[in-house]
Amino acid sequence: MIFDKFSKGQFKSEFIQDGFYSLVNCDVHTKLGTCQAQLALAQDSATPNENSVLVSVPSGKIYALSKTSGKIWERATNGTWSLVNTNANGAHAGGGYFNNRLWYFTSTNLGYFDLSSTWSDSFGIFTNTNTTRPFLCGGVNRAFAYIGDGAQLARVDKDNIFSANVLEIPLGETITDIREWGDDLVLTSIGDQTKIYRWDQFSDTYYKPDLVAYKDIDMLIQSQNSNIIYALCRTKDGYAEFMYYTGSELAEISERRIWDTTDADSYMKTEFDGRIHFAVGTKVYTLRNSALVCEYTATSAIQSLATDGDNLFVDCGTNGVYKTGTSRATAVIQTPVIVGTPQEIYVPYDSLPAGTSITGRVKINGGSWTAITLINDAEQMRYSLQGGLPAESVIFCQIEISLVPSTTLTPSIRSIEIK
Length: 419
Known about the structure:
Layout lengths: L1 E2 L18 E3 L1 E2 L7 E3 L1 E7 L6 E5 L5 E5 L4 E5 L5 E6 L5 E7 L2 E6 L2 E5 L5 E7 L9 E4 L5 E6 L2 E6 L4 E7 L5 E8 L2 E7 L3 E6 L10 E3 L3 E7 L6 E6 L5 E6 L4 E9 L10 E4 L2 E6 L2 E6 L2 E7 L6 E4 L4 E4 L5 E8 L2 E4 L3 E2 L5 E7 L5 E8 L4 E9 L4 E5 L9 E9 L7 E2 L2 E3 L1
Antiparallel strand pairs: 1-41, 2-33, 3-4, 4-40, 5-32, 6-7, 7-8, 8-9, 10-11, 11-12, 12-13, 14-15, 15-16, 16-17, 18-19, 19-20, 20-21, 22-23, 23-24, 24-25, 26-27, 27-28, 28-29, 30-31, 31-32, 33-39, 34-39, 35-38, 35-40, 35-41, 36-37, 36-39, 37-38
């Protein structure tokens, strides 16, 4: 068996043979057909030190809107953070950039900063008291900013006129995310049932909603240059699965799942390095052409993501803000289950810089992970198993390969071959 389809990503079950069971801290996009260790996240600053929503603006500055207080921090383009405002209306529920302003909102009020000197914490008042407030800058020529307000949709136009209710869905539902589909908006909601709506931005009402057979939808994932919308949906057990929007309904993407029940929301995503990145728990994933890969791992639960174009920024709450560093993380790759006893294991590489290495472990018959000895054959440019597996009776097993970096350097492998 040869496992080399890194670009297909990871699958929901260890028994699916068409890809990998797990790809953590893996870069499968830089050199297609190979896998190497991704950059590690490094702390950018110990403050902000509260759960925050990160918002980037075109100047390269980043703002952190505290979800536990009214504090707003600013990251200057030289990398220094400072407290620049304390919202009189308390903790934030979200924010975004639109029309040369930073917009921020609490459970009750809409505020803005003109990116110069003027702060207005109470520019607008929402109809509903709500802590779930997704944001979207959209419309023709990006002429509107939309904000979820429970069962209503609020809007700011290009003249900075605030409308508290431009669309209303059934009472008792809460809008959880907003994306564009051509000239229309797509909204997700939770309530007695999980639904997805489509609206043309001008009519008094929406098209017929589609019922979704999941507990809820955490977020909609879409590249700015793509009309493909993925939905991160929750099973009844709380795990994350994926569907895609067809224009009228959500259709299933088979065999993709994240085994993590940690809640996520619409602020835990951003477009970076040509791919949409989104967070669940402590991990940052990409979903490209339906291929799911974990690219980064944080030290604690992730609250939001943003980018200044050159770096990915990750808010880790009380642990501060992290960003993509220069050193590499250890990449960990797990194969599907292999039936029988492998006699040979090879890991061909195309690059093995000085100080880097490749190590391995095995899980036999569903037990715990045990180290195996892999020896480097530099002439053949591959690592191979030495001494056999540490068990006499192997009914089935999994192989785990780790790509161990040396600061900025990383191994790059072409496949995992098991015979």
